[in-house]
Amino acid sequence: MIPTWRLRAAFARRLSGMYGAEVPAYTTLLEVTGEVNDEVARRDPDAGRLGGIERVAAERHGAVRVGTPRELRQAAQVFAALGMRPVGFYDLRDAATSAVPVVSTAFRPVEPEELDRNPFRVFTSMLTTADRRFFDAGLQDRLETFLDRRTLFPPELLTLAERAEREHGLAPEPAERFLTLAVAAFELSPEPVDRAWYRELARISAVAADIGGVTSTHVNHLTPRVLDIDVLYRRMADRGITMIDEIQGPPRWDGPDVLLRQTSFRALDEPRTFREPDGSVTTGALRVRFGEVEARGIALSRTGRARYDALVTETDRLLAAAADRRSAREGDGGVTTRQDVARPLWEAGFPRSEQRLAAEGLGYFTYAPAAARPRDGQHPPADLAGLLEHGWLTARPIVYEDFLPRSAAGIFTSNLTGQGTRDSARTGTPYDEHRLAEAVGRPVHDPFQIYAAQQDASLRRALEALGADDALRKLSPS
Fold this sequence. Notes:
By secondary structure, this protein is α+β, with helices and mostly antiparallel strands. The protein is 47% helix and 15% strand.
């Protein structure tokens, strides 16, 4: 029997190999990522604080796009066979100024031991065909008819996926068949694209065209994890790879790394065949796939995330004010970058150490009794800050395993061929995690609850080991 986590690891490896063969620049990205990770691991003895180098080297996340709840449920079944559950709700429709008419979730392992074995994630987006800001009633009907006619996942694959989920793995022969079919389901199809139909959707949204303008799905991007994303960004440019304009997410600073920083190389022109209105088949190119890379930091609590969101909003305000001043001076003066604006805000508004991040309840950590704690009959303090400050507890950060809607939308937008169209005077179709769960056909897990449960369990064990009864009674971890 090949257990679930080995199926997941094998699928991630095979998907990475397939994508590298289809998008050669992704192979360059893997090479540079490996070089940077090795260098950081050699010079920094604490490089594995947010995941050991073996885990980081194997780590990937993919991104796929589907068109309907039926397709989303089928994708969920394939990922369930790999021990990956839907976590988080992301509405990208309002996270960018360009037209990105999708809502998303991330399929990933949720148990710490499964994440340690292989933390593969797939950010999965579904087209919102009923959203009148993008699609009128006539186009919605034609689009949904087109989507209902196609089959993304063959019945044999879904049957094997159901068995793998039920039995927590597969025997070698069906496992091999499952992996072959699963990887093939996400390959780029050679079938000709209906040029007129694709163009009609692309005028509204390049993302909509990529989802609903073809008869299959494919990996949109694949993402390794790097330990120094700023070095990688410069080194990829030195290799002649065109990167997007900036690194998405928090700025680089000298305090704790939190949440997620991402960047990518720009989508490349890829040769495709097209079916013309007269029935002839011609050749051309589309730009839809790219290679992304990420640097992961500490998971933030709801309070910490609110602080982060407020800093992002203030950064936006200051950037807009700087742009207005430049415009008033008719372009005189240098360009102010997001990093330039965000860094001082971050330094003023966020704790400069992991200990303060933990003590203020802004980040998630696992706790353990200190190896050499004070004795002499002292009683442990009843507050987390005191327990950390006086050496009773040690705190180890919990890695952020999820995504940022704005960063995801920023990556999508940076790789689009056009802004698309949106009728902002209309009301968007309401979506939340409950409606998404109905579409998936499975509960969508709250990432904050996952992190909090891991933190609280470790803290309770640590306090019980210390005999810190007062702390157990008084502490109410976030």
